[in-house]
Amino acid sequence: MDQIQDQNTKACTDAGSSDASRRRFLKLAAATGVALPLTTSMATAKGPVGVKTTRTKSTRPQLRPPFWEIEAARVMQSFTDGSTIPFHRYRALGSTAVAGTVPVLTGTAGDVVQLRVRNTLPYPVRPKIVGFNPGPSIAPGSTSAFDVVVPPEGTWLLTDDTLGDAAGPMGLGAVIVSRSQSALRKVSNYDREFVLLYVDSDDRWNAAIDNGQVPNYALYEPNYHTVNNLTYPGTASDPGTTINCQLGDRILLRMCNLGWMRHSIHFHGYHVDMERINNQPQSIYGPKDTVPLPGHTTMEALLTIDQPGAFPFHPHSLTATTDNGLYAGGQISLIVAT
Ligand SMILES: [Cu+2]
Q1: How many domains does the chain have?
Q2: Do residue 248 and residue 291 come from a single domain?
Q3: What separation in Å is there between the alpha carbon of 231 and the centre of ligand 1?
Q4: Span from the CA of 147 to the centroid of ligand 1 (angstroms)
Q5: In contact, 298 and 256? CB cutoff 8 Å
Q6: Domain end position, chosen among 139, 162, 185
Q7: Is there a single domain that holds both residue 15 and residue 80?
Q8: How close is the Cα of 335 to the center of ligand 1, in Å?
Q9: What is the pTM of this model?
Q10: Distance separating alpha carbons of residues 274 and 268, to the nearest angstrom
């Protein structure tokens, strides 16, 4: 694996500036990708409730529980550079699935799902699906449940409206996977799927927010870079983040960026087809070894495994493949094909 990194990863990252000096990253146009003229997906809060949403009309079989359960909590995370950084994250509770430690909330488009949120942070949180109106404010120390209409088929970001621009970098992120009713019935056009949530963080913002202060929003120089809340080599040992697959597999990558860096995700060994960007179908692009992933956007890409081997994929930015400048770390993940 070290050999793979040395031959491949290092070779194609920009080695022009290998020191740990911070760089300015502009949030330029990062948030312009999602602007869907749809109705609000979150209903007004009903206040705390303790029962499941009752389905009145549908007779479809229930493949998942009709509720999503998460917690907004303080998490301390240690990195390979020796630092330990506070994050305020959504964590999965109950039967809620995860990729790495990121909650993955799966539902059927148009269904009403109850979102239960336990807030153990010292300030209110307000869950928000990127592109939609925010839900209700959930007071510190309380648990609330409210109804959410599952957005149209695709891959969506759940974040928080209270922290604004800092919510993603601070860790308040989850991924919603919405399937169409028909997709449940027919054979899908992929064999496996993976959720990959990229987040970049400026630890000064984390420290300020964790101390109850307002971060300097005018200066954002991210120095920690996670995939599914993990950094390499932690990404490589996580079964939900390493793309374990077999020759011939067609794999749907649900790539999400809840940071502010404008990524170009580069694949070694394979090409991918961009299927949908912000849940809008794409065509005529053809296979690429590098695909764009701006901040606060999602992309579904189809990866066809046409050769066995182990290959990294990562943002084409040296900074993003480090933990505070220490290479190799950050947002490097592996495809392992047998
Ligand atoms: Cu590379």
Answers
A1: 2
A2: yes
A3: 15
A4: 42
A5: yes
A6: 185
A7: no
A8: 12
A9: 0.82
A10: 16
